[in-house]
Write a structure and sequence with these properties.
It is found in: Cell membrane. The protein is mainly alpha-helical. The chain has three domains: about 200 residues, Growth Hormone, Chain: A (Up-down Bundle); about 55 residues; about 220 residues, Up-down Bundle (Growth Hormone, Chain: A). Helix content is about 80%, strand content about 0%. It is built from 18 helices and no strands. Helix 6 crosses helix 17. The longest helix has about 35 residues.
Length: about 475
């Protein structure tokens, strides 16, 4: 990479454009598929439960391999893994686009997920390594904006493609974007000059893949079959055992997959924990909102989609701005402010009823999204700035894994708590919305929002205490 006389990369903004193309593409592919699932199920002649694996397989493979690719990036170079990821993602997208059976589609989604994991494991590391500290927050904010943009554009774009063309084009659309990103990376990113003489921890990698696959698979299927199902319980238990063995192995080898000493850094660990909290809360809210809009407020699906664009739209605007402010005034105060505002927004959401006005609902969502937007970029900057350069790959991968874990845990927490409270209110077990009993849903929704708002306030208080004691020590 070309470096100017003052030590700053000359082409850092072009590199960032290349990185955000990949981020946009990966997030677009996560959200664009959902709207096409009914059509895909019909054309492939499979059940609704079966077609759900098109989404689940992609999420599971990313989550179970992103740390491995992060470690490979630290060993062989971030740019090599980045290029490999884009190339594999393009190949996976092409095979998805020509699949004519569910089996082939799921296999190709695994390939696509591997490519996404490889590229996602390096995006934050590359951005952090090419930008100076006084521009890093802004750059990571732009990354956050494009992640939100991909998630926002996915559903309407997917609906348009499915209504005009074949569902296969929702995968084929990735190819031209991916080729642009690949060509740019080949032109701008040189191969790393030094490669570590270290080997990948294969035992640890196998245990990690098994643990995360079982955990995510159990949490995902537990929503359908119930968490008291013996196979779901066994899956979670085996996952915990594998993770326990993984930690023991990592502590006793010279070249671990994850250097656990990274978690001794209190700033890194707390920032990761607060990031997990934010993703749990946003995921829990996002799974409830469609039911509230459509079943309680009686809005159409299309109008519900319009209402739910508000949150990512706010993120697109606020993320770069909060990143810029973190470069100017520091990140820690902004993370406290962001989590606090997010918690207030969630608490306000708990006051909504079946009679609440749309304006009020959108104001509360705006407050919630404002807090999330203020929080994310500075928190990512704290995470990536708190580790040495030789651990940027694994740090970015841990951050990516935590994001996916938060999204899954948020859905599980939300649905479990919601239906538990709804069942308590009505007097018998229910796992669905009860028509003409909007009060039952509102009762459950209220408790979900109260609990996740408390989580946000806990993260905010912990960050505030850490900052206070740090300044007192200085």
């Amino acid at each position: 990479m070309s470096i100017s006389s003052d030590g700053v990369h000359k082409y850092r903004w072009v590199i960032l454009f290349n990185v955000v193309l990949t981020i946009f593409m990966a997030n677009l592919d996560s959200s664009i598929v959902n709207v096409a699932l009914p059509v895909m199920a019909q054309e492939l002649q499979v059940s609704t439960a079966s077609i759900g694996w098109v989404v689940s397989s992609y999420l599971i493979i990313i989550s179970s391999t992103i740390l491995i690719f992060g470690r490979l990036a630290d060993i062989h170079g971030k740019t090599i893994v980045f290029k490999f990821g884009i190339a594999l993602f393009i190949i996976g997208s092409f095979i998805c686009g020509i699949s004519n059976s569910l089996t082939n589609l799921i296999i190709s989604r695994f390939i696509q997920g591997l490519g996404a994991a490889a590229s996602m494991s390096t995006t934050q590391a590359i951005t952090t390594s090419v930008f100076p500290l006084n521009e890093r927050g802004r750059a990571l904010g732009v990354c956050g904006a494009f992640a939100a943009l991909g998630a926002m554009i996915g559903p309407p774009l997917g609906g348009f493609i499915v209504s005009i063309f074949s569902w296969k084009f929702i995968f084929l659309i990735n190819i031209p974007v991916g080729l642009v990103a690949l060509i740019l990376s080949l032109c701008i990113f040189p191969n790393p000059t030094t490669v570590k003489k270290e080997k990948l921890d294969l035992k640890g990698s196998a245990l990690l893949v098994l643990s995360i696959t079982l955990l995510f698979g159990s949490l995902t299927q537990g929503q359908e079959f119930g968490f008291n199902n013996i196979f779901i319980i066994l899956g979670i238990i085996i996952s915990i055992i594998c993770m326990f063995i993984f930690i023991i192995i990592e502590k006793n080898i010279s070249s671990p997959l994850v250097d656990l000493s990274i978690f001794k850094n209190k700033l890194f660990s707390l920032s990761i924990f607060c990031g997990l909290i934010s993703f749990v809360c946003i995921s829990a809210s996002n799974i409830i909102q469609p039911f509230y809009f459509q079943n309680t407020l009686k809005f159409t699906p299309s109008f519900t989609g319009v209402c739910m664009i508000v949150a990512p739209l706010i993120l697109v605007v606020i993320s770069p701005l909060s990143g810029y402010l973190s470069d100017k005034f520091g990140s820690e105060l902004l993370t406290i402010l962001g989590l606090t505002i997010l918690g207030i927004g969630l608490l306000l959401m708990s006051t909504l009823t079946q009679y609440s006005s749309l304006i009020l609902v959108l104001i509360f969502i705006l407050i919630m999204s404002l807090g999330n937007g203020i929080f994310q970029s500075p928190n990512n900057s704290l995470i990536m700035s708190s580790v040495p350069k030789n651990k940027l790959g694994i740090a970015g991968s841990i951050n990516g894994l935590v994001r996916n874990l938060g999204l899954v845990l948020g859905v599980c927490l939300s649905t479990t708590l919601l239906y538990n409270k709804m069942s308590y209110k009505i007097g018998y077990r229910i796992t669905t919305y009860i028509n003409d009993r909007d009060d039952i849903f509102i009762y459950g929704m209220k408790y979900v929002y109260i609990i996740i708002s408390i989580l946000c306030f806990v993260g905010s208080i912990l960050t505030a205490f850490r900052l206070y004691f740090q300044k007192k020590h200085k």
